[in-house]
Fold these 4 entries.
Entry 1:
Amino acid sequence: AQRVTQPEKLLSVFKGAPVELKCNYSYSGSPELFWYVQYSRQRLQLLLRHISRESIKGFTADLNKGETSFHLKKPFAQEEDSAMYYCALSGPVQGAQKLVFGQGTRLTINP
Amino acid sequence: KAGVTQTPRYLIKTRGQQVTLSCSPISGHRSVSWYQQTPGQGLQFLFEYFSETQRNKGNFPGRFSGRQFSNSRSEMNVSTLELGDSALYLCASSLGDRVYGYTFGSGTRLTVV
């Protein structure tokens, strides 16, 4: 069964400190993985996709198939990074468009 | 470029009633998915429509149904409302391939009393 686990419901770090939001997944195959972010009073928005290997707002995420993880990292946190972050996966079924989300991690950046 | 538009933004209904929510995807997006978001269960997949056909379905009772029109607009219907149906219902659209990810709407907040 597809499952996404975000072990930390809350994460608090100081501005300028490194940030790592953990995501582990369970899937027998090669899933597509995503990070979504929801800032206060804003809609849920796509932050990055593993297939793009991109860095958005200083965040990166590397897919580790051996550890079945897709942790989100940023070397220097900014106050505007405070938000709710969701890890999600989409399975490889041809034509399928269904995301399974983790429970989310609320990140707070302290000044 | 207009985003995903959901109407109405807020709804209050009574137990036993039915409700219809509407979603207009981004122009050119043929896939529309619906999610239920609650504090306890998080984001749960309801169903996905692509070119007017239901392509995927989540584990929700038959009271939850949907449809998609030829212009890709989608509606979701919940019949015989229960208190537990109170939630934020999110619509998301995409080009249709699993690699792209979604663009979400702001949601419809449904309260059942």
Entry 2:
Amino acid sequence: QKEVEQDPGPLSVPEGAIVSLNCTYSNSAFQYFMWYRQYSRKGPELLMYTYSSGNKEDGRFTAQVDKSSKYISLFIRDSQPSDSATYLCAMTSNTGNQFYFGTGTSLTVIP
Amino acid sequence: NAGVTQTPKFQVLKTGQSMTLQCAQDMNHEYMSWYRQDPGMGLRLIHYSVGAGITDQGEVPNGYNVSRSTTEDFPLRLLSAAPSQTSVYFCASSQSNPYEQYFGPGTRLTVT
């Protein structure tokens, strides 16, 4: 069983839609949860990270963590064509040395 | 700051050849790591280092060696390339907050 599961999509939405991206995990030791955005043929860039359970908001992006369900989400409000990319979830334990990534979800926002 | 740089951008190797992928950062970051990215597999950690002289294995270390003699550089060595090592390799670094990793642009490696 993979440590982190993520639906690869692809996901296609109209401009202005709310996008929901999700990951599940199996290791209860994970405490830090991150979302990265990766444009085609580029390295991933960190969007945001959260610690333990709860929500975190940054502009149009909201990250949610439900540790009881081992489920994390990223919501994108008012999606823009520039949001078209692959979104990767990642997580690690308190030591922060080994990171586990999801396979990524490909998102296209249609103008 | 140049951030995290990787060389080469592209490389083609024959089975059995060896090579070193270079990674450098100019942000004085202590934590550095190497990942490979394959379709359907996501990013998988190969090796990581928490400081000069300290390295450890990640999820998929077989076939790869690393060393960390300076804070700035973290090269990845392929000892005897195999077609299964065809992949995109990313180097990353972070400082006081290891969860904020900065990734390089990647090296696309093909082993024939």
Entry 3:
Amino acid sequence: DVKVTQSSRYLVKRTGEKVFLECVQDMDHENMFWYRQDPGLGLRLIYFSYDVKMKEKGDIPEGYSVSREKKERFSLILESASTNQTSMYLCASSLEFSGANTGELFFGEGSRLTVL
Amino acid sequence: KNEVEQSPQNLTAQEGEFITINCSYSVGISALHWLQQHPGGGIVSLFMLSSGKKKHGRLIATINIQEKHSSLHITASHPRDSAVYICAVLMDSNYQLIWGAGTKLIIKP
């Protein structure tokens, strides 16, 4: 079974703190994603990576950065957390999207971040 | 205008009822995903389809590419089916995923 593991289910941080959210997948997937999910807004893409050291901005990258030094690991970094970054963060992975291979999505359990 | 529209937004039904959730989209796609999210839980992929129909247990997903429409059906619904069901499409132009807002389903015993 594909497993996508997020490092923390619940975090509480203070405004201005640096926050690391880690995601690890064990199926050699090329694609990895970071989403945030807020009530009434659905899933919004923060960043996407299609290969090691490659990253693409999603719809809401401001205030976030990412790192993908190894294929299995995709980290989301909040350099200076703010209260409006309180949210559920979801990591996902898939095989590369190409033609007939359209990549089933596998999600982690989510990390609920509260910034005070 | 959203490129992926789901309906209804909320649906409450009695156990045993046949459930239909709809997804309409306005872009060219390579594939359409149906996913399920239980309260407080992660998201699980149910189906990925690009044509026709797929069935898994009591769940059936259909897609009509010409009409740009997909439906997710649940037969003999059960309270454990209560969840948010999300439709997402993979655009064929740039492989971008576009997400629907989700349909919250509650099945009452």
Entry 4:
Amino acid sequence: EVQLLESGGGLVQPGGSLRLSCAASGFTFSSYAMSWVRQAPGKGLEWVSAVVGGGDSTYYADSVKGRFSISRDNSKNTLYLQMNSLRAEDTAVYYCAKDNYAGMAPGRDAFDIWGQGTMVTVSS
Amino acid sequence: EIVLTQSPATLSLSPGERATLSCGASQSVSGNYLAWYQQKPGQAPRLLIYGASGRATDIPDRFSGSGSGTDFTLTISRLEPEDFAVYYCQQYGSSPQTFGQGTKVDIK
């Protein structure tokens, strides 16, 4: 079964840092671009960041550029999101999501598999 | 960036009725790279349609997508009880990919 499982969310003070993880199983992880998508409480979906299958190219939304860093360890089938300088507006459920097709450039594909999400709350 | 506007914000219908959801783009969506997702409370989004009209794996054929350029439609031919949810469109033809604000389909 294809599955994504996020972890690492929690409560953090403004200006703090948090690292999210997403463990993948059931597919050839290294063949697919992966993304993080977030959803603020009661709001819609916002794409945050993406990384190519090999991990050597990364992409960010303007709202997180310079503060967040996406990476992956294909030997561990795991995706990461390092979040620094967190703000109240970063409060959201963070989902990792898999591209529908292998080998696509990030941002050029729909997401066919999503994790269950991990909640990040930025508050003093 | 391309702004997607979904209408209506809420659609109140009864089981068995036909639902028509619209997604309008501020610019033409390259390659008709438009997807639709269903999201139920407390759950992750679920891919329904990709490439404007391609049905994702295991999606019932009562769900269909159509449209091109700047105007896209998701149609649910006969609403089942499990179809009452929020639906989002997403364009992935231009960077950054963007989502609409959602249409809630609730029970009348």
